[in-house]
Specification:
This protein is an alpha+beta fold. Helices cover 47% and strands 17% of the residues.
Length: 243
């Protein structure tokens, strides 16, 4: 059920507020009259996610038989920033541990002679390796805990990191099934950290900045996609919606 153009005629349309199945459009504005489809004998659109351009409101997507209003790019960007800062706070102890280990290395004694690294002791090598392991381990640990665990919460906060929760948005599966821990790990860490880092590294090694541009495009894609999807949404079959 989609709205007609210029202007939409009065009728029942998918609720852009996401509170009920349908809301009455009086020809110029949304009213407070809302109802579920079964009480009106009105058939909803197919259950596969399908964007509906609503009269007087933003685009909605049908998820599990419920119309959900799509989140715009700016709240998503704000959530990225908030979650990034929170992740950095959790990562800080690992960064400090790495820094403490490498601080004891006499960097001035290290030099390159005939393409060979000289002045590096066995203890220095061990400190660098251990520091790298601590830092990488911290990145993995934070990546598979903070965002996946907060998104996998049951109830009203399912699909929401703390950043998303602050800005009133959430990730939903196209199937309507609640976001689980492993699906959150795949989206937030497997795709947004590991895959994008690999693509960026490979692309930059071949074209200087091509990989970085590719990753930026994946994040910016909601600006021109009619369903406001980023690269991770295409890969993981998700949408980001407003509450």
């Amino acid at each position: 059920m989609t709205a007609e153009k210029n202007p939409p005629v009065p009728g029942w349309y998918l609720d852009p507020r996401g509170q009920r199945d349908l809301r009455w459009w009086d020809g110029s504005t949304w009213t407070e009259e809302a109802a579920d489809s079964h009480t009106l004998g009105v058939s909803l659109p197919p259950l596969s996610p399908e964007v509906q351009k609503q009269p007087g409101g933003g685009a909605t997507v049908l998820i599990g038989g419920r119309a959900r209003v799509l989140a715009s790019w700016w709240p998503r960007f704000g959530a990225y920033l908030i979650d990034g800062l929170i992740s950095l706070a959790f990562l800080l102890p690992f960064v400090i541990g790495c820094a403490v280990l490498v601080a004891g290395i006499d960097w001035q004694a290290i030099d390159i002679v005939d393409n060979n690294l000289v002045g590096v002791s066995a203890d220095d090598s061990a400190a660098v390796v251990l520091g790298a392991l601590i830092l990488v381990g911290g990145i993995v640990l934070v990546g598979i805990t903070y965002q996946p665990l907060t998104m996998a919460r049951r109830g009203p906060n399912n699909g929401r990191t703390w950043g998303m929760q602050m800005l009133g948005i959430r990730v939903v599966n196209n199937s309507g099934v609640a976001i689980g821990y492993w699906s959150a790990v795949l989206r937030q860490f497997g795709v947004m950290v590991v895959l994008y880092a690999v693509l960026s590294g490979i692309g930059n090694s071949m074209t200087l900045v091509g990989g970085t541009i590719l990753v930026f495009a994946a994040y910016l894609w909601p600006l021109w996609d009619r369903e406001n999807r980023a690269g991770q949404d295409f890969i993981c079959s998700t949408h980001v919606v407003r509450d």
